[in-house]
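Researcher: We're teaching a course module on how sequence relates to structure. For the next exercise, students receive a sequence and then see the predicted structure as tokens, so they can try to spot secondary structure elements on their own. Here is the exercise chain.
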Amino acid sequence: MIFDFLSAGLDVFLSPLALGLTFAGIIVGLVVGAMPGLGPLMGIILLLPVAIGLPPVAAMGFLIAIFVGGSCGGSISAILLRIPGTPLAAATLYDGYPLAQKGRASDAIGIAITASAIGGLIGGVVLVFCAPILARFAANFAPPEYAMLAVMGLFAIVVISGGSIIKGLLAGSFGLLISTVGTDSFSTGLRFTFGSHNLLNGFHIVAVVVGLFAISEMAAQMMKRDLLNIPDVKVARPGLHTIALTLKHWVNLIRSSAIGTFFGAIPGAGGVISSFTSYAVAKAAAKPGEKYGEGAEGGVVATESANNSTVGGTLVPTLSLGIPGDASSAMLLGALLILGFIPGPAMFENNPDVVGGIFMVYLASNVFLLIAGILATPLFVYVLRIPKVYLIPSILLLCSIGTFALQASVFDLQIMLLFGLIGILFRAADYPLAPVVIGMILGPILEANLRRSLLISREGYWIFIDRPVSATLVAVNALLLAAMVYLTIKRMREGKVSELSKAMAADE
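Model: And here is the predicted structure for the students to work with:
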């Protein structure tokens, strides 16, 4: 079965357009990943309008490659500037920067790129083998199961993401709310359109996401005082010998990749948790001579292999169940929906060429990452020297052009600016943005399947308990809800203890 998908997708994958865009996506991903404040999510958002006009496999290859390259690119600035380009590279600081200070910046970047590529390939193997099996299992799902899956995706994002759980729930609820705008698919009634024909189909997800993330992020960057700063960064040229340096740590490499893939498959966990966990495990298992935190090669191997293998793990529930694991995979899910494909068992059954093509472009993107990363690192170093005063207006212009080009609509630009303002307010109040996107994408899935479940049920909500799989998912959701309550109470108590200790210190 697995080889059937790969053979079905081979023809569309081998097209010059798909291969070329996959390689281009790696370059773009490395650039946006290396630049602090951007990252893979921002890269996907900025170029989503370009991708949705392409053939499906070429479009997904482009976006997935940005995801893969961006997950690795943050290590470049982390190693050279001690500033992680993305949160994914935060753990790489521990050993990457000290290794660079020892005069081994090229080796550190080469090890990071090689470990990322190999970790991504391991995650890809898991994706290729596990996604079809999970999709086949999910083929027997009915509306009750899908409704509970959607709830689980929302709960998991909120529980595992950092910050206030209450704020995460409110942000996710806001995403659910805006997903209801437009025409009701059951009754054909209009909801929250306020007489505007532009809202008959609801908010366009690209306009919302560009506003929430890109516009608000650029506003946050403009508030800083480093707009004119030109980072002093030296050119690094990693060589092919860094592959051998990485493979010396093959046990660490495989173990960290397995950890990253595992956390990636859990909705909401993501690369940050997996990279720090992998680093902690590698440090605990290190030999006495390996001084972690002082420039250990194994530290870079652990963190970078973990955060890129997370990408493959994240795509497993995204493709097989239609449940995104994080904000970036939510964007990939949104891209598939815009292209006319519904992720889940139906896509595996009806579009094996697209599924197989996605598998192939993901594996190829990690191979391209190794090639492009080692050869083009000096280019990314020069990009790091671009002052933000030139970068921010360019990004805002790209956001506006891309959003307008979606439907040639000025209204989409207005929505982009509106949600840009909402994103600024959310950031100021310390509300997470990812649950908004997840809620917006999962909202229609939850609503449609909940209403279908109640229509076919003769006993109301008991239908969710009567079916074994649905009952299991209900139990999981109950555990997640209990975890939310527990963590909320714990954080409130910790906050009170912290305030008390501060007050006592002030009195003294």
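Model: If you want an answer key for the exercise: The two ends are 70 Å apart (CA to CA). The chain is about 75% helix and 0% strand.
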